[in-house]
Amino acid sequence: MTTMLVTNGPIYTLDPAKPVVEALGIRDGIVCAVGSRADVLAALGTPDSTLDLQGKAAIPGLTDAHVHIIATGMTLRQVRLYGYTDFAAVRKVIGTADDRLPAGVWLQGGGWDHTLWGGYWPTADDLEQLAPGRPALLSRKDGHSAWVNHTAMKIAGIDRHTADPEGGHIDRDVNGNPTGIFKETAINLVRQHIPETTDEDRRAAVTDAFAEGYTYGMIGMHSFTGTRRDGFNDLRNFQYMREHGQLPGRILVQIDPDGFEHMLGLGLRSGLGDDWLRVGAFKFFADGTLGSETADMLAPFEGGHNLGLPTMSREEIFDNARRANQNGIAISVHCIGDGANRKVLDAIEAALKPMQKPGETLSETAMRSLAVPNRIEHCQLLDPTDIPRFAAMNVVASMQPVHMIGDLDTATRLWGKRNATSYAWRSVELSGAVLALGSDAPVESLNPWLSIYGAVTRRKLDGTPTAGWYPEQALTRFSTLRGFTVGAAYCANSHTRQGTLMPGMVADLAVMKLDPFACDASQLQHNTAHLTMIEGNVVYRNDF
Q1: DSSP string, 247-309
Q2: Hey, which end of the chain has fewer CB within 10 Å, N or C?
Q3: CA-CA distance, 301 to 288, in Å (whole number)?
Q4: How far apart are CA 474 and CA 355, in angstroms?
């Protein structure tokens, strides 16, 4: 039995009944006492060790509720084009990467955003000039468009005669030739020709992703596969790491469409696993994105007639929800537009009603029938009438405030007055729904403090607009941090053991450089961890 006293700094438990305490006791990786130093020592006895906070703030360890873990780790070794506003600078980064790679190796990566260059969509000619003779595929920041060169298209056998696949689109010039921009499922026409990643690469990527996460105070991630449907490989490697004591943090695994039929055939239900590795929901896509104007809309984007691009029919969505929920499998659905969000909420309602018992609410039906909750990913634009439906059916709103930071100008242009309920974190919270917050890395930075800053201020990283963008939708610091702790834990049905620093909870905590409740809100984006701990074991320490 080992014991530790944590003291000499504010300890934010994130429990409303006792939000800040003076000291905390840990016994064998579990919080056993909180309160004054004297009270904790009375319960703990003489501790084996003491963690002196030196006046720094401690918070529960953070969990990112939406990460493409392996893709995030892999991108640390690829071309990263996030935030570049000058296309000339983008060209330089790509050219440098091409010079560095061995001959024949695919140039991969992405993060580019054409709206930062005045709306110019890059072309296959552009990329071929930068990586001549080398196949290249660079994803847009949202992952729903890709920029490829002529060499890659030649390998994939794509030319002017190639038809658009269902749920996808190939941009073409006036002569019908592909321009080099592939959207949604069309990306797979090229991506399927990229050589497979090895298991060793995948496991190293998991370690790399968590190594970065530790620096922010992160101890867990909810794993989503990339656009290549490789969930089998992800789950197999997570299990290997768990069995060999190599898993660096807590993971909730979402199952992709390729695995759904196998789940049904095996009778595999959501919730299987332990507090380190657990099977989550069946994840699929209902629409595209805002930036690519492929979000599924109830009414057209501003200034036109475009209603977006559903990636799945209404009938398929309803069938997926019914078959999943009625077999104990939760669903986790990518929804950006208000049309997609409504469609999925309708599908969940239709799936739950046949299981509803007399006198039971649909929320109670869902909690009784599913070990982990249904969830909608992103929820970026919601019709006001749909917001109460999340709580009414126990659907978690899995949202990423960092998206607002980069998208607010585009949202203003494309959604107009409808933005009163876009990125509507406060409205969703007030409705009684559970919020689980994340990053969607590598679409955005893994840094959770960017999302925390955005949720609290409703501003871009440069501080504009100073009054905040639809500031009535801002969250308090307390609510935002609970979205990265309690809300994320709720998604894994582990909220009775994780998410707060109260007796009986696991001792997952972080000691922060800046006190997140006392620093100026503008500084939240710059916060980092001095120390990160999982079950009482220090996994990261920096200048502390």
Answers
A1: --SEEEEEEPHHHHHHHHHHT--TT-B-SSEEEEEEEEES---TTTT-S--SSPPTTS-----
A2: N
A3: 13
A4: 36
Q: Which CATH architecture has domain 3-61+504-541?
A: Roll (2.30)
- What does pTM read for this prediction? 0.84
How does pLDDT run across 218-277, given as a tens digit for each residue?
Answer: 999 999 985 445 667 889 999 999 999 999 999 999 998 888 998 999 999 999 999 999
Using alpha carbons, select from 82, 97, 74 the residue that is nearest to residue 212. Answer: 74
Domain ranges in the chain are 3-61+504-541, 107-191
Instruction: Report whether 285 contacts 344 (CB < 8 A).
Output: no
**Residues pairing with 277 in the sheet:** 251
Residue 240, both tokens? 């290997």
| Cα separation, 544 vs 526, whole angstroms | 17
The DSSP code for 393 is T
Token code pair at residue 116: 């930062």
Pairs from 173-180 (Cβ < 8 Å, separation ≥ 24): 178/124, 178/153, 179/121, 179/123, 179/124, 180/122, 180/123, 180/124, 180/125, 180/126, 180/127, 180/147, 180/148, 180/149, 180/150, 180/153
**How many CB atoms neighbour CB 334 within 10 A?**
24
Distance CA 246, CA 242 (A): 6
- Class of residue 505 by CB neighbours under 10 A (exposed 0-12, middle 13-18, buried 19+): buried
* Cα→Cα distances 23→3, 19, 20, 76, 188, Å: 13, 12, 9, 38, 53
Enumerate the β-bridge partners of residue 375.
Answer: 332, 396
Which residues, other chains included, contact 202 with Cβ-Cβ below 8 Å and sequence gap of 6+?
70, 233, 234, 237
| Residue 423, both tokens | 């990125």
In this chain, the answer to whether the domains covering 3-61+504-541 and 107-191 adopt an identical fold is no
Three-class secondary structure of residue 148 per DSSP: strand
CATH of 107-191, one of 3.10.310.70, 3.30.420.10, 3.40.1060.10, 3.30.160.160: 3.10.310.70
Kindly state the DSSP code that residue 426 receives in the 8-state scheme.
H
Whole-number Å distance between alpha carbons of 238 and 247: 7
Q: What is the pLDDT of residues 280-299, one digit of tens each?
A: 999 999 999 998 899 999 99
Helix (H, G, I), strand (E, B), or coil: what is residue 114?
A: helix
